[in-house]
Specification:
Layout: H1 9-29, H2 31-49, E1 60-63, H3 67-70, E2 71-73, H4 77-84, H5 88-106, H6 108-118, H7 123-134, H8 141-151, H9 157-166, H10 176-195, H11 197-203, H12 208-216, H13 221-246, H14 253-259, H15 265-268, H16 271-281, H17 285-313
Antiparallel strand pairs: 1-2
Helix pairs in contact: 4-17, 5-10, 6-10, 6-11, 7-10, 8-14, 11-13, 13-17, 16-17
Pfam families: BPD_transp_1
Organism: Paenibacillus cineris
InterPro entries: MetI-like, MetI-like_sf, UgpAE/MalFG_permease
Length: 320
Amino acid sequence: MENTVEVDPRAAAVRRKSSAGRVLQTVRKHYFLYVLLAPALILTLIFKYVPMYGAIIAFKDFSPIKGIMGSDWAGLKHFEKFLSSPNFDVIFMNTLKLSFFGLIFSFPVPILLALMLNQVRRAGVKKNVQLFLYAPNFISAVVIVGMLFIFLSPTGPVNHLLTWITEEPLMFMSEPKYFRWIYILSDIWQGAGWASIIYVAALANVDPELHNAASLDGANLLQRIRHIDLPTIRPIMAIVFILAAGGIMSIGFEKAYLMQTSMNLPASEIIATYVYKVGLQSGDYAYSAAVGLFNSVINVVLLLTVNFIVKRLNEGEGLY
């Protein structure tokens, strides 16, 4: 006969009560921190979790008159329509290329900026350089795109200089082959300085005595960066990379849409702009919801995959 262990219900109740008591004691002790956390938690629930209810639209033939629950069930019809549409390959690859190349080229730049800023010893100079690097982050996407159209127009200053070499202006904002690089480079210029803040803050915690000791042992600047600075920010680099890779399909809609022209559409049409056009402009809400949900599922899969790989390569340190 197998041995069975009987659990005393009273003992289990006592343990649950003591556990609940410890939780309440912790809340009472740190109540002010929970009060500070409450607004952010409430806003996250309202604007991030409650709207998930609307994802049901992707599986229905949604009618505004019938409402979400009253609309007829469509199953995977809208997903099949998108996957079999002639535009799927172009839209999906445009989104993937723009996101992938943006991640590859933009990810190292904030790290390099932080490492260079960390070598600036004069506080006044360092603050002025940081102000210069952080300022573009506060320029709106509309203004950035307006600047691009002005500077890169056939009669703009960039083409004015290039005509000395090419003898004719380049149609930067019209030809599809230029769209992707203009988008990525302008993104780096706008966001790299601001993204370097987290690395600068981490490097500020490095003990200067480590650099002094390494210098006395004969280590040059690159060796000190490799063996002291980079190991310090490596966990942050891993987390930032995982989050960036998890959102690789969620590139900014506003900038891509504003940079679109009828001539560069073969390279500028991405999932975000496509969802806007078929959803808000054409009124096909169910189909656009299915496309958006498809995009979100890919992001989740990428997030989990990249996190698993990074944990294997980074001694178990990842997002979770």
